[in-house]
Amino acid sequence: MPRLTLPVRRTPQVAWLFTVPLSILAVGLTFALQLPLPIPPRDWYLAILFFGLFLVADATVMRFEIRRQAITVTVAEVPLLIGLFYLSPLLLVTVRAAAAAITRARRGREQASVKLWFNVASVAASVAVSKAIVIGLEPSDAAWDLRDPTTWLVLCLAVAAGVLITMVSVVGVITLVNGRASNRDIARATVPGLIVTGVNITVGLAALLVIKATPWGIVLLAVLVIVFVVAYRSYAQFVQQHRTLSEMYDLMRGIRDARYSGMLADALLHRLREMLRAEHATLWLPVQARFPEVLHTAQVDASGLLDTPGSPDPLRRLALERGETVALTAKLGDPQLLARMRSEGLRKDAIVVPLRSGDAVIGTLDVSGRLNDAVEFDPNDVRLMETVAAHVAVAVENSRLVDRLRFDAAHDALTGLANRRRLTAALEESVGVRAPGEMVALLLFDVAGLRQVNESLGHAAGDQVLVEVARRLRASAPSSALVGRIGGDEFAVTLRVDSSDSALGLAKDLRNQVRDQMVFGTLTLDVDTAVGVVVHPDHGSEPATLIQRADLATTAAKTVPGSIQLYNPGLESRSVRRLALAGDLRRAIDNDELDVYFQPKVTLGDRRLIGVECLARWEHPAHGSVPPEDFVAVAEHTGQLGHLTEAVLKEGLRRCRDWSATNHPLSIAVNLSTRTLTDPDFPTRVQELLGEYGVPPHRLTFEIKEEGVLDGTDRPMPTLHRLRDIGVRLSVDDFGTGYSSLSYLRRLPVHEVKVDRSFVQGMATDPGDLAIVNAVVTLSQQFGLTVVAEGVESELTLELLQDIGCEVGQGFLFSRPLPYERLEAWFAARTESEPAQGGGEVRRLRAVT
Ligand code: C2E
Ligand code: CA
Ligand code: CA
After folding, report:
1. Tell me: the pLDDT tens digits for 662-673?
2. What is the mean pLDDT of residues 337-357?
3. Alpha-carbon separation of residue 559 from 203, 449, 501, 539 (angstroms)
4. Mean pLDDT in residue range 307-316
5. Is 616's C-beta closer than 6 angstroms to any atom of ligand 1?
6. What confidence tens digit (pLDDT) does each residue in 563-598 have?
7. Can you give the pLDDT at residue 219?
């Protein structure tokens, strides 16, 4: 993410330092040029014509996107160039400056006059300089001859000089106000402008030549202009749709991810504001039950969020009361309301949408103040806001539910003590802050004989014992300690101590305090505990490790009644297991005991079988089948990943070769771990294997998880490029689970996107998931990428995917991953052959009757 350095803001008033000299230059130069010349009467009519042309040109602002950069194009230089040729200096400068003043004043109603005057002055000065060049270089003996390219050069020079003056003064003012911009920023702001100027000058010259040849040329020019305007309109619409879709996708994902973190407003408001090009976007949730009021606003030019509304209060209240969208623009919404609001001095246009939860309205979301005054909010914007609001309402509800659950989640219902989660969090915190000479102790108390109490006296009695132990522990523990109940009969105490001895001493004291009798009617019970003790940093620094080791010590303590046990590594004996698994895996790979299963990939349009994904399987002799995620992780950590990948790849290539031989060629896909992408020898090895098995590279796809391809660095890039150069296909696996933006995809050397199965499976029930899959499919197609939906389990999902236009699917609906022999049987039972276009045959799924 680009980091922005905060500008040194000075008051914009310093712009006068430029405005005044520019004005003097403009006025002085204009009169100096004009005085010796007469103004022919014809010029007055021409001036009116040019005034109109300048107004139109100034109002024509076009936006193009070139190489992902937005470029704003105006055509003001076209009439200027013609005017330089036809108009006398005084009229030209006056008319040009007047048009600029009117345009600016209309565009920035709320803008300070500083900016307006600066702009007008710089336009006037630049036109005066241009005209001076034209007059100054005019040959003394004759008038300008347009057929002579020297004339073109002079006109060109004149316009360019004018543009340069404007640019220099703009950059100057920005530097004064905001501090020095980097050269790159300056280049980025000016270079596109210079290019546009070049184009405009060319167009202007051409127009001038045409008009000069015959006044009827104007008709031709008009036709060209109309064609261009129509083409630009449809282009702009396309770009806008594209952008909205892309932004919507990012927004939905932001909302989805923020659901539980309370970061909703952050994720939402700035994006929403940008998307609708508004000055403000506000989220308002009035007080409701135990939830306090929430009011956040994103404001243009301000990072972070404000606690003040951006929209008028009455509008939001109205939307809340009526439970319906309130739009305040000249064209939309209730005219009476508009009149009333305007009479109360509310000028900004706005869209306020209610956030509904069932029948209740829990708040509002709004945008106000369209940034570009020329276009107001329109019905599309309203629809967009309503869609976003529906998602936001759900997210708010969820986060409130989470809030409510959070308290319950951190506390044990029976004793009111902290529960395991809270204790783990507290441990995490205290372990994170280290003070010299201090340790963090964790004492684990296991209540002895609780099971017997439950069995002989009933659970109510057992509960009573637990409540009593909790009371005694809390009463006796030092005030700095946190006491929690972390399991059925397990209590934990954590605090800072100065040595493990003092931890043991405290454990002994506490155990004695707890150890007292409890009376149940005629029965008297001895309550006793076994205590395990660990200290940080001696016995670990992860809360989970500490708890697990304390547990181990407590178990050891239980074997000696009434004892207290400090952890020591000798208590461990099971950690050896994982190492054993690594040894077994090596043996399995070496002895070819890994299996490869194949899962079909099918085109959704015409149900053709196009390939299979190869998935590794391992049946451990003692533990049964080990999930691939687990043994892939073991392989990664024990340096066996290369062997694993190669084993799967070879098996896949072997089958692929066999299928080609039977006249039913199928592609194969093999999964790669992120780590493989940092192995510089891998691409060469792939090439060798392809040659060895005689498989054409395009039959092989590598699937790489999203976070592997886009890990935020360029490290995987060289391998990706080399693989692509070999000719194998690359696929982004589990797309949607990482944090990459969709548009970034097109910069990668990949051919395919696999939408993560969580979204595919959610499509049928969650509109958010549906929207995401839709966006991925639409944009990927625009980028020329194949989209594969994985995890297709139901007919309903299949239909939705077809509606959206997703090309390829994979999932249990077609087939589970199968061993080779069963896959062959599946081919026979579920598919039928038909001739393929390019020779050979394809398999098509039989219609299910
Ligand atoms: P993956 O690449 O996302 O593979 C797809 C997983 O989705 C497979 O799980 C497959 O059985 C499962 N699946 C397919 N269709 C459906 C469906 O309709 N519904 C549901 N619920 N699941 C479906 P599997 O085989 O357990 O593989 C898990 C992951 O292990 C794979 O995820 C892949 O990342 C990794 N993996 C498997 N084999 C290899 C390998 O040879 N090398 C590497 N590096 N990773 C592998
Ligand atoms: Ca995969
Ligand atoms: Ca996947």
Report:
1. 888 999 999 999
2. 83
3. 95, 13, 22, 21
4. 88
5. yes
6. 788 888 777 653 344 556 778 899 999 999 999 999
7. 87
Atom number, ligand 1, closest to the C-alpha of residue 673: 44
- Are 764 and 713 spatial neighbours (Cβ–Cβ below 8 Å)? no
Q: Is 761 in the pocket of ligand 1 (CB under 6 A)?
A: no
DSSP letter (8 states) at residue 498? S
Residue nearest to atom 33 of ligand 1 (CA): 671
Evaluate: CB of 706 within 6 angstroms of ligand 1: no
Residue of 59, 56, 57, 106 lying closest to 77 (CA atoms): 57
Provide mean pLDDT across the span 217-239. Answer: 84
Among 117, 89, 99, CA closest to 29? 89
Ligand 2 geometric centre to CA of 669 (Å): 8
Confidence band (pLDDT; 50, 70, 90) for 258?
Answer: low
Does residue 403 carry a pLDDT above 70? no
Q: Which pLDDT score, from 0 to 100, does residue 435 have?
A: 78
Q: Which residues surround ligand 3, an ion (CB under 5 A)?
A: 733-734, 790
Q: How far apart are CA 766 and CA 764, in angstroms?
A: 6
Instruction: State how far the Cα of 738 lies from the Cα of 576, in Å rounded to an integer.
Output: 34
CA of 627 to the centre of ligand 1 (A): 9
| Tokens, residue 236 | 């702009």
Q: Output the residue whose Cα is nearest ligand 1's atom 11.
A: 817
Residue that is written with structure tokens 């104007």 in the block: 218
Report d(CA 594, CA 616) in Å as an integer.
7
Question: Does residue 757's CB lie within 6 angstroms of at least one atom of ligand 1?
Answer: yes
The answer to whether the CB of 373 falls within 8 A of the CB of 349 is no
- Is the C-beta atom of 676 inside 6 A of ligand 1? no
State the chain's mean pLDDT as an integer: 85
Q: So what's the pLDDT on residue 402?
A: 62
HSE-up (13 A, CA, CB side) for residue 157 = 13
Dist. CA 266–CA 254, nearest whole Å: 9
Ligand 1 in reach of 817 Cβ (< 6 A): yes
Pocket lining: 673 vs ligand 1, CB cutoff 6 Å: yes
On the question of pLDDT at 38 being above 50, the answer is yes
- Say which ligand is closest to the CA of 755: 3
Site to probe by mutation for ligand 1, drawn from 790, 793, 797, 818 as the one with most ligand atoms within 8 Å of Cβ, is 790
On the question of a cis peptide bond just before residue 537, with omega within 30 degrees of 0, the verdict is yes
* DSSP conformational letter for 372: S
* Band of residue 7 on the pLDDT scale cut at 50, 70, 90: very low
- In order, the DSSP letters of 305-319 are -BSS-SS-HHHHHHH
* CA separation, residue 92 to residues 44, 46, 105 (Å): 10, 10, 20
SS (H, E, C) 120-174: HHHHHHHHHHHHHHHHHCCCCCCCCCCCCHHHHHHHHHHHHHHHHHHHHHHHHHH
| Ligand 1 pocket, residue 672 CB under 6 Å | yes
Give the residue-averaged pLDDT of 85-104: 91
Report how far ligand 1's centroid is from the alpha carbon of 591 (Å).
Answer: 23
pLDDT band at residue 105 using 50, 70 and 90 as cut-offs: confident
DSSP 198-261: HHHHHHHHHHHHHHHH-TTHHHHHHHHHHHHHHHHHHHHHHHHHHHHHHHHHHHHHHHHHHTTT
pTM for this prediction:
0.51
Give me the long-range contacts of 96-104 (CB less than 8 A, separation at least 24).
96/50, 96/54, 96/123, 96/124, 96/127, 97/26, 97/123, 97/124, 97/127, 98/51, 99/51, 99/54, 99/55, 99/58, 100/54, 100/58, 100/124, 102/55, 103/55, 103/58, 103/59
pLDDT, one tens digit per residue, over 615-634 is: 999 998 877 788 888 788 78
**Mean pLDDT, residues 641-648:** 95
- In terms of DSSP H, where are the helices of 520-666? 543-559, 576-590, 628-637, 641-661
- Helices 77-86 and 183-213, packing angle to 10 deg: 50
Decide: 632 in ligand 1 pocket, CB within 6 A.
yes
